[in-house]
Amino acid sequence: xxxxxxxxxxxxxxxxxxxxxxxxxxxxxxxxxxxxxxxxxxxxxxxxxxxxxxxxxxxxxxxxxxxxxxxxxxxxxxxxxxxxxxxxxxxxxxxxxxxxxxxxxxxxxxxxxxxxxxxxxxxxxxxxxxxxxxxxxxxxxxxxxxxxxxxxxxxxxxxxxxxxxxxxxxxxxxxxxxxxxxxxxxxxxxxxxxxxxxxxxxxxxxxxxxxxxxxxxxxxxxxxxxxxxxxxxxxxxxxxxxxxxxxxxxxxxxxxxxxxxxxxxxxxxxxxxxxxxxxxxxxxxxxxxxxxxxxxxxxxxxxxxxxxxxxxxxxxxxxxxxxxxxxxxxxxxx
Length: 334
What we know:
Number of strands: 0
Distance between the termini: 115 Å
Helix content: over 70%
Radius of gyration: 29 Å
Shape: elongated
Structural class: mainly alpha
Number of helices: 19
């Protein structure tokens, strides 16, 4: 006699398998359709625990972060770590999410745990450098970026960030060496050319700086606002005032409310046409009411015109915008 009860365990396993396959297929199709967050949420219950679930949760965290959901991403990474504490990818993902959330203290703690698991993690030192940079610790930033580059010398992103940090610290030979190597390997990169222009400018090589900025402008596919401004600065420093004026106007065309371009147009007019200069400084302040140098120069012009009340008001505005502005304080005391 055939007993259907004997087949029930087999039928149950078949139904479970069919359900598992159906859910897996749905997850796969969602991911193929660029619905990664939904895909990994569907896939997560398929793995009960351990390394497999940790991996799915890590991928869910990556997808959530790409979807601009850093808090949800952080939670997914934290859950991935619960299932596998040695999951370095989840720990680094958590650090990136905490950086997105500006939780620097926690981010520093988590990257420390990741580096304790693997001190040779280039990404760990890279992220620690980013944390230090946001905290204003430039020497630590340089140290960590340098270690990341040592561990992953082929990373253009890490080398570029190290070059910018060296430049910010005034280490011009180190910055130049890094940037020129990048330029040789990938000629015509607009950002590399722009930073090389900044190095040339700091080295007072005005013609070289102008050449780099022009090359950066030609290489860009988006408005080259800062490139035009810096080209103007280099041309003015090299004595080409007409070229500088044209460059500042190009910067304004790209960004009509660009306070720094307005200010520098005012500086060109300061000696010869003070009324025009004052107009430009006023426009710069309208675009940025905290522009201390623009307030200060309006004070200078008012002093020269014997409008002492206006001068005092302008110097006070400059001091309010920058409390440590020594020249404004001295002019107020005069």
